[in-house]
Every structure is written in structure tokens, then in C-alpha cells.
Design goal:
single chain, globular, mainly alpha, two-stranded antiparallel ribbon
């Protein structure tokens, strides 16, 4: 008979190839559905003049208010009920709401649909993190998280080209000195089809999740009895060790370090979504870049994110070190964003700084999300992950709103970029002061 460790390794390997590809695709679609407004806005503003940068920024950000309200309950539902059923519900609901965004006519309608989209998607991201804790022991969790996280950079690499192609539907443009009019489809313009066509996969994947995902190892018929028992035993042993330290739900939610981690995530999310929603607009305004050229430039940071997250997930697990794997990407990001305004007039240098600045805001995530589970278990871990994500994602409201309002008041993004760099610097200072996740340290150690 194989040793328990060998059986556990086989079980986690099977789980990796069974679960991660589906979750990967789901996250990619979710990410596009929340962020495609950054491209759709380029046509929305022309068709509906009321949709200026401030309106788009506020609407892009209000998504995260709805998201905030249901994050912790959603995480607990995954822990105590069923990830399979809850993620199915989330995907079908958000797909429907995302598609309906195509029919907004006023800023108020846009705000309502973005708020409802946030409510619909709430619980997906932290729910998956909690779910992966049901399958992967702590020594392998950062690698699993990294594989899940890289869905967002891959989505950012692939989706802009398709979205920009859709944007031409119903549009009149000048090509080689000639005016070309692209016919509408079914009476709808390109920005509307961006919302509709990216929403359909979410609904379809919801049903795939319901029938394909497995909640816990004990439910997995695709594992042998030995593999199920071995993996369940290792996860139970880890949870027992953490439970002995006292990790009730309220212990997790009231832990000052959890609240500080939430603040770190808030700072980085503020910068991340500020850049993400307005990078196409900044490049268009500064350099007149448009169309497929703009699509490729917007996608470039995702290449570094993809490579960086895979490296951080692998190396962080290999060294059992989290802190510097968080700090170094964020230090590079803050530095690059602070330099961006100085590069105005030099497109290659501007793009290079945005690549480093935007990438650093995501590369750190596999190591960061491994921190809460170092001590917390069961409901405490689920509640804490939901709390960090819900508070942190309020930065998704602040970041686009800052850049949108700064653009309206100053006709420039410069001050807004400095504010975003300052937010990342604050997150760096908090991580440095917390002194958690160092090599060989537990979450509770100083």
C-alpha cells in the first residue's frame, strides 16, 4: 500500500487538473464582465454624451459597493453549504445582469446595473479561495491560488482584441482617408454586444459548475478511497492544529492583523482598478492610440502578471516565505506609477511604466492570499477571507472614482496617478510593519 503522503500527493494532483481548469475559465469570464466597461466606454461616451469620465468612473466603482455587501456571507455559504451550488448561482445571475447592462440609456440606469452586477458576483472570488482550502494543504495552496489568479491576466490579454473588434459594430470610422460605416447587428451597437456576448459564457459555465465541481474530497468519486482518506486526514490535521490556537469565526473577523491585511488589499485594489479602467483612456488621450494598437498595449501588462504570479506562487511555496513575495512586487509597482506622469510624451516609456506598475498590483496576490490560512481554519478562515476581500474591494470603487473626478476637475490624470502610487506605498508600509509571513514564520508570530 502507498504511504499516506504519496496518496495525498496523488489526490492533490488529480484535484489540480480536475478543479483548477474550470475555476480558471470561470474567473476569466468574471473578470472580463466586470472590466469590459473600460473598452465599452469609448463608444458609450460618443453615443451618450452624459457618460463622461466621472460617470464611467463612478459606475465602474459602484460595482464594488454591491460586491462589499455580500462577500462575507458568500464566503460562509461556501464553507458551510456548497461551493458548487453557490458558484453556479453567482455565475448565472451575474451573466444575466451583465447582459442587461447593454440596454442602459442614462447614468442612473448604468449605476443601478453596475451595483446589481456587484451583488451578483459577490462571494465568487473569496468563495473559490475558501473552496481551494478544502482541497489543497497549506504547503501547496499558493501554487493552486496562482493558477487560479492567472486567469485575470490571460483574460486581459485575450479579451481586448475581441472587444475592440465588437466595438466597431454600428460605428462610422475613417480608414485610409475613406469613411466606413459598420452595420449594427439586430439594431444594437458594438458597446452593447461587448456586454451581451461576454455575458453568455457566464450563464453556460454556471450549469457546468453545478454538474462538474466537487465540494470536498469525501465527495469525489474520481479519487480512490485511499486518496480521499489520506487527503481528508491531512486537511483535518492542519485544521486541528489551527483550531487549538483558537480560531472561531469572531476570532478571525476581529483579528487586528486581518483588518490590516484588508487595508493592504484596499490600497492595492484602489490602484489596480484605477489603472485598469482608465489605462485605455490615458493612452488614447496622451498619444491618440486607438483600435487594435490600443488593445495590444492594454494587454501588455498581463504578460508580466502571468509570468510573475506563476513564479510567486511556485517560489513562495518552495521557500515557505510570503512577506517579501508581497513586498517586492508592490515596491516596484509604486515606483513605476510614481514615474508615469514624468514619461508623458514618450509612449514606449509610458507603456513600460504602466506594465511594471499594473503588473506589480497582481503579481503579489498568490503570496498575499496564503497569509490568512497560516493560522485560521474553517469558519474563521472563510469569514476572514471574505472580510479582506470585501473591505479591500471597496478600493475598486475609490480608484476609478479618483481618476474620473480628477480628470473632470483638472483635465488631466497626473494628480490621480500620484494618488494611486501613494495608496500602494501605504500598503507597502503596512506589510512591512506587520512582519508576518516571513520564512519559517506562522501568521501569529512577530
Amino acid at each position: 500500500m502507498n504511504s499516506p503522503n504519496e496518496a495525498t500527493r496523488r489526490a492533490t494532483k488529480k484535484a489540480f487538473w480536475r478543479l483548477l481548469p474550470l475555476l480558471f475559465v470561470c474567473y476569466a469570464i468574471a473578470y472580463v464582465d466586470r472590466a469590459n466597461v473600460s473598452i465599452a466606454k469609448l463608444a458609450m461616451a460618443k453615443e451618450m454624451p452624459a457618460f463622461d469620465d466621472a460617470v464611467i468612473g463612478f459606475g465602474a466603482g459602484i460595482f464594488f459597493i454591491g460586491y462589499f455587501l455580500l462577500e462575507v456571507p458568500g464566503s460562509l455559504i461556501v464553507e458551510r453549504w456548497s461551493a458548487r451550488k453557490w458558484i453556479c448561482r453567482i455565475m448565472i445571475t451575474w451573466g444575466i445582469v451583465a447582459a442587461l447592462t447593454a440596454f442602459v440609456k442614462t447614468p442612473t440606469q448604468f449605476y443601478v446595473m453596475r451595483f446589481l452586477l456587484g451583488l451578483s458576483e459577490a462571494g465568487f472570488f473569496p468563495g473559490v479561495i475558501v473552496f481551494l482550502g478544502h482541497w489543497f494543504p497549506s504547503r501547496e495552496r499558493a501554487r493552486a491560488l496562482a493558477t487560479f489568479f492567472v486567469a485575470s491576466p490571460i483574460a486581459q490579454m485575450l479579451s481586448p482584441s475581441l472587444s475592440f473588434a465588437l466595438l466597431k459594430i454600428g460605428m462610422t470610422e475613417t480608414v485610409n482617408g475613406q469613411v466606413v460605416t459598420h452595420p449594427a447587428w439586430l439594431g444594437l451597437h458594438g458597446w452593447q454586444w461587448i456586454y451581451i456576448l461576454w455575458a453568455l459564457p457566464a450563464v453556460l459555465l454556471g450549469f457546468v459548475v453545478l454538474f462538474f465541481l466537487t465540494d470536498r474530497p469525501r465527495d469525489a468519486k474520481w479519487l480512490t478511497a485511499e486518496e480521499r482518506d489520506s487527503l481528508e486526514a491531512e486537511l483535518a490535521r492542519e485544521n486541528a492544529e489551527k483550531r487549538a490556537r483558537g480560531t472561531s469565526l469572531w476570532h478571525g473577523l476581529g483579528n487586528p492583523r486581518i483588518l490590516l491585511l484588508a487595508m493592504v488589499f484596499f490600497c492595492t485594489t484602489t490602484a489596480n482598478y484605477g489603472i485598469e479602467f482608465f489605462l485605455p483612456t490615458i493612452l488614447f488621450n496622451w498619444y491618440g492610440v486607438r483600435g487594435q494598437e490600443l488593445a495590444w498595449l492594454v494587454a501588455l501588462p498581463s504578460i508580466l502578471v502571468l509570468l510573475g504570479q506563476l513564479f510567486v506562487g511556485w517560489n513562495s511555496d518552495r521557500l515557505q516565505e510570503r512577506r517579501w513575495h508581497v513586498l517586492i512586487p508592490l515596491i516596484l509597482s509604486a515606483s513605476a506609477l510614481a514615474v508615469v506622469p514624468l514619461t508623458h510624451g514618450n509612449l514606449p516609456l509610458t507603456v513600460l511604466c504602466f506594465i511594471v506598475g499594473a503588473a506589480g498590483l497582481k503579481v503579489y496576490m498568490p503570496a498575499f492570499w496564503a497569509l490568512p490560512s497560516l493560522l485560521l481554519t474553517a469558519s474563521a478562515a472563510a469569514g476572514s477571507v471574505g472580510l479582506i476581500n470585501s473591505i479591500g474591494n471597496l478600493g475598486g470603487f475609490l480608484g476609478p472614482s479618483i481618476l474620473g473626478q480628477v480628470s473632470r476637475l483638472t483635465s488631466s490624470f497626473v494628480i490621480g496617478l500620484y494618488i494611486l502610487a501613494g495608496m500602494v506605498a501605504l500598503g507597502i508600509a503596512i506589510v512591512a510593519c506587520l512582519r508576518i509571513g516571513g520564512r519559517g514564520r506562522t501568521f501569529s508570530q512577530r
